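Reopening this one. Same input as before:
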Amino acid sequence: MNIFNRMRDLQRPDIKKPARTISIISGKGGVGKTHLAINLALKFYRAGRRVLLVDTDLGSANADLRLGASPTMTLVDFYTGKADIECCLTNTDYGFQIIAGKPGEFAMANLPDEQIIRLLMAFEQLIKQGTFTDIIFDLGAGISSRVLDFALVTDEIIILTTPNEIIHGYASLKACWSRFLSMQNNEYFKKRASLTKTPYYLRGDYQGESGAPRINFVLNQVDNLEHGKKLYLAMTKIAKDFFFTTEGYWNLPMRYLGGIPCGFDFLKRAERQRRPAMALNPHHEISQAVSNVADILLEKRAIAPSYLKRSFGDKVRSVVRTWATAAS
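Same output, byte for byte:
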């Protein structure tokens, strides 16, 4: 580690608070989820955060390959009982740490409930330790209950989609809401109501009153930034109309983080060199766009962190109760 990185470490904020958790999901694979995850992690680190990136794209993990990292232990070792979750931490050349998965593992892609619960409980301990200020989860594609349950226990959900796959982004949004409702019916966020008579987007709430995660949208491969904004506004208008009920309004907080322009050649070059795009060329328009997304996430960090409303562990236990109810 060079002198500049050591000086940056000395300036890191108090890390005794629970980590803020962010999950990145998409309704379909191949939209740039892992690129976004590794570049957000790098930007957060450069902003003075202690960051952990977790590749929980079970069965199709490749974040370590994109970073040129060589983990000695992965989530496979955790699942098989060969290592604790702390033993799976791997340093990268970019200041942040990673917990890697393993691609092509059938067992990883079809984990039983007990193993998923064990994983969530292990992350609860990491979050409570305060070793990291931010933990970013790169989740699998699709809208399976396992992906949604993992996402819904985090503080922030980022739904990544593209103009050509906007319907899959909307599907992810609908699935999050439906799964949230089913969990709420099983006391997922008990003592808090997610439906209120006054919608959050009229009151301007940051977090709403439900303790629910905030849903963020990022539009990748846009022609221009205005293009992404228009698509987001059109989609949210449909969502607000669709999710209106006689009981109240949809109250999962939602916002637009920004658009990321096309740049396949640049991203392929970053993949070949096994470097984050932001490290390859921080001045490229893609790097600048991701940096802007990260700035929004960082700017709002101190306003109303949702772990003050409901802890990661509390939400995990609510997920477990939901599974138990469904199985009975």
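So the earlier flakiness isn't reproducible anymore. For the record, The chain has one domain: 16-327.
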